[in-house]
Each structure stands twice: as structure tokens, then as C-alpha cells.
From TrEMBL:
Protein name per UniProt: Piriformospora indica-insensitive protein 2
Principal subcellular localisation of the protein: membrane
Keyword Membrane listed: yes
Subcellular location: Cell membrane
Keywords associated with the record: Cell membrane, Leucine-rich repeat, Membrane, Repeat, Signal
InterPro entries: Leu-rich_rpt, StomDev_PlantInt_Reg
Transmembrane intervals: none
Domain of life of the source: Eukaryota
GO terms (BP aspect): response to other organism
Naturally occurring in which organism (per UniProt): Zingiber officinale (Ginger)
Chain intervals for the UniProt region annotation (Disordered): 413-435
Signal peptide start and end residues: 1-22
Basic and acidic residues bias: start-end ranges: 413-425
Length: 452
């Protein structure tokens, strides 16, 4: 027993000594001198020449760590692995009015993540992304994010395509221009590619997505991209979210999109697209509004999209009746069919959808009587819209006839109005008496006077 206890004690002491040794090594390990000077230079050119890192942060990877800078040990020395400049926290590094990229950025040879946001906006002359030396970061860089830099202009440098270990490339909300470089096809490990809110133009190169089988998120929204959607999108076999909204894409959807069997979001709003919808049973959010689609909604098998939560089909030139199959989409939360040419009635089954919180049917040619129960109008409030349907009315027999719970902009059905008028007259007669009753009363008064 004593031997076992002694052995356990010795093992515990050994573990504690090893941990203490590791902590001591981490606390006293120096930072590579060239690495430190490169870090100071890069930050100084971004946040301003008055920033004196050597005085404020003599040990930037140790006891005087810089907010937004992360380090790791390599061969007993500290090296920078992450640099984040932007107004994220109160004490975050923020760019100056004359911010710029320092070439020593590419001397940070263990850098895994680089993020610069809300920078370069107040420069008199726009800045461009450095066009060379990115290959020096290729062995380590995994994430590159340049976001919300309104003064960052020019084209995407082709040699970004040499960052073969990159899994996230975010160049969103800048002022970047030109066509998307085919060289980005070399980023075969990408899981996220976000180029939205820029000024990119031209067609999307067909080879761009040839090898991006690991891509999960593709966002090219709010640019000036044109032409048909490339069939090579079907190569993105792992894709979860595809946002191509607010561009100038034209033509029909490529049937190859049906191969995107994991897709949960498809956002194609504000383009010039049309044609048949691919059968994508995994879809949760389908946004096609403001496309000249035309056609009849009945032509699509809505019953196959049982995972749909959002269905946004406004202003698409759609015709025909609202398919009854849409009322069977039990997970539906948001349905917008406004601004089309839909006709026919509105099924009361919409009130049975348990998660529905918004239903927009205004601006169509719908007709007949709304037969939703009063609780439906109360639950939906202003999120139910059915005005500008000239032949549509609502029933007060089912709805609570008040200014709050009645559907806005929809008249009561005529028979309800007639019934209401008759009830009003009946009520008035009850209160004041019928003409015959009034006549009998006066006759009685006259007789009484005569007798007296």
C-alpha cells in the first residue's frame, strides 16, 4: 500500500514539475526580434504613427499583450498567429485616417488569421489590396477578412489564389471592382467565400467553382454581376447557403442546381432570372422576389419542400391560384406573395400553420371571402397584408369586427354589411318601438284625453 501511495505521489510531483516548467517557458520565452519589429510596423501603419508599441507593449505576446493580437510558441520563440484590427471591443486597435498596409505584414510567417475592418474610409486616395507577396503567407494563412473598408478599392489580386490553406475569405462591404479572378479557383479548401456589397461586374467565371467541394457559404450579393448562373455551381456539393441577390444575373436557373442536396438557403432576389425551380428538398429559406419569373405557381411541387421556413416570392409576375400544397408546409414562418397576379380565393388553412408569423398577399387579384378566425388577425397583426385585392372581403361572422382585429384595407363582405344594417334597424326598433307601437300609443293618448 505504501509503495503504491509513494508511486502515485512521485507521478503527481513529476506532472506538476512538467506543468510548472511549461508555464515558466511560456512566461519567459522571448519573441523573435524580427517578428516583433514587423508587428510594430504593421500596426503603426494601420493605427497611426503616434502609436508607440515598443513603449506600450514591450512584450506583445507575453505580459503586455496587444488587444487583437494572438501568438503561439514555435521552437521556443513567440510568433504572431492572429492579427485583428477594427472596432470590435472598447480597447481594440482602430485604423487612423491615413491607414495603409505595411509590406512587413508578409514577414509574419506564422500568421493564421488576418482581419481588418472599418478601415481606409477617410483616405483621400483609395487604397488597394497588396498585389504581391501573398504567397509568403500561403503555408499558414487560414482566414483573411477585409470587411467594411469603404476606401479599399481596385481588383482582387490574382495571387490571393495561392493561399492554398485558406478556409475563409471575406472581402465584403468594400469598394472593390472588376471581374472575379479565375485564380481564386485555387482556394480548394475554402469553406466560406463572401464578396458581397462591392462593385464587381462581368460574368462569374465557369471554372471558379471547379474544385471548391468543401465550400459551405457563398455570398456574391449586392454587386453588378451579369450573365447566366454558371452550371459549375453544382460542383459545390457541400454548400449550405447561396446568396446571389441584388445583381444583374439573367436567364434560367441551371438544372444542375438540383445536385446541391445540402442547400438550406437560396437567395436570388433582385435579378432577371426565370424558369423552373430545381427540386431542393433541403431548402429552409427560398427567396426569389423581384425577378421577372412569370408562370403559374401550381407548376411546382411545393409538397416536396417540407423544410421551408421562409418563402419570399413577391413581385415575380406569378399567375394562377395559390396552391393548396403551400398550406401544408408546416414549418413555414414567412410567406410573401404580394405584388403578383394571383387569382382565386385564400385558403383558411393558412391559419392552421403553427409557426406562421407573416403572410403578405396584397397587390394581387384574389377574390372571395377571407374566412380566417378572429384569433388569426389578432395573432398576425400588421404582418398579415391582403389589401389591393379588389374582389376580396372578410367575414365578420368569423373575425372579431373591430379596428384592431379586422384585416387592414379589406372591406367587409356585402352580406355581412346587409346583415349588420338589418341588425342595426332591429336594434333601433327594439329601443324606440315599431311604427305600429307608436301609432297605438298615440291612439291611446287621444282616447284618454277624450274620456277626460
Amino acid at each position: 500500500m505504501w509503495k503504491i501511495t509513494s508511486l502515485s505521489f512521485l507521478l503527481l510531483v513529476n506532472l506538476l514539475l512538467q506543468r510548472a516548467s511549461a508555464e515558466t517557458e511560456s512566461s519567459v520565452a522571448p519573441m523573435d526580434k524580427a517578428e516583433k519589429e514587423a508587428l510594430y510596423s504593421v500596426i503603426r501603419d494601420l493605427v497611426g504613427v503616434r502609436w508607440n508599441g515598443s513603449d506600450l507593449y514591450p512584450d506583445p505576446c507575453g505580459w503586455t499583450q496587444i488587444q487583437g493580437v494572438s501568438c503561439d510558441l514555435f521552437d521556443g520563440l513567440w510568433y504572431v498567429t492572429s492579427l485583428n484590427v477594427g472596432p470590435i471591443l472598447d480597447n481594440s486597435l482602430e485604423c487612423s485616417s491615413d491607414a495603409k498596409f505595411n509590406p512587413k505584414l508578409f514577414h509574419l510567417r506564422h500568421l493564421k488569421s488576418l482581419s481588418v475592418s472599418d478601415c481606409f474610409s477617410s483616405r483621400r486616395q483609395p487604397l488597394t489590396i497588396p498585389s504581391s507577396d501573398w504567397e509568403r503567407l500561403a503555408p499558414t494563412l487560414e482566414s483573411l477578412e477585409l470587411r467594411s473598408n469603404r476606401g479599399l478599392a481596385g481588383q482582387i489580386p490574382a495571387n490571393l489564389g495561392q493561399l492554398g490553406n485558406l478556409n475563409s475569405l471575406v472581402l465584403a462591404d468594400n469598394a472593390l471592382t472588376g471581374e472575379l479572378p479565375v485564380a481564386l479557383a485555387g482556394l480548394v479548401r475554402l469553406k466560406r467565400l463572401m464578396l458581397s456589397l462591392n462593385k464587381f461586374s462581368g460574368r462569374v467565371p465557369a471554372p471558379l467553382f471547379a474544385g471548391m467541394a468543401q465550400l459551405l457559404i457563398l455570398d456574391l450579393s449586392s454587386n453588378y454581376l451579369t450573365g447566366p448562373l454558371p452550371a459549375s455551381l453544382a460542383n459545390l456539393s457541400s454548400l449550405l447557403k447561396l446568396d446571389l441577390s441584388n445583381n444583374q444575373f439573367q436567364g434560367s436557373l441551371p438544372p444542375e442546381l438540383r445536385k446541391l442536396t445540402h442547400l438550406s438557403l437560396l437567395d436570388l432576389r433582385n435579378n432577371s432570372l426565370s424558369g423552373e425551380l430545381p427540386r431542393l428538398e433541403s431548402l429552409q429559406d427560398l427567396l426569389l422576389a423581384y425577378n421577372p419569373w412569370g408562370g403559374n405557381l401550381l407548376e411546382f411541387e411545393w409538397a416536396n419542400l417540407q423544410n421551408l421556413s421562409t418563402l419570399y416570392l413577391s413581385h415575380m409576375g406569378l399567375r394562377g391560384a395559390i396552391p393548396d400544397a403551400i398550406t401544408s408546409l408546416k414549418r413555414l414562418r414567412y410567406l410573401a406573395l404580394d405584388g403578383n397576379q394571383l387569382s382565386g380565393g385564400v385558403s383558411a388553412k393558412f391559419s392552421h400553420l403553427p409557426y406562421l408569423t407573416a403572410l403578405y398577399l396584397n397587390g394581387n387579384n384574389l377574390s372571395g371571402q377571407l374566412e380566417f378566425p378572429g384569433g388569426f388577425y389578432e395573432r398576425m397583426g400588421k404582418r398579415f397584408a391582403s389589401w389591393n385585392n379588389p374582389n376580396l372581403c372578410y367575414s365578420t361572422a368569423l373575425a372579431i369586427a373591430s379596428g384592431i382585429n379586422a384585416p387592414c384595407g379589406v372591406p367587409r363582405c356585402e352580406r355581412d354589411q346587409q346583415h349588420s344594417t338589418e341588425e342595426s334597424k332591429s336594434s333601433q326598433l327594439t329601443e324606440n318601438g315599431s311604427p305600429e307601437e307608436h301609432s297605438a300609443l298615440w291612439r291611446g293618448i287621444i282616447i284618454l284625453v277624450v274620456l277626460l
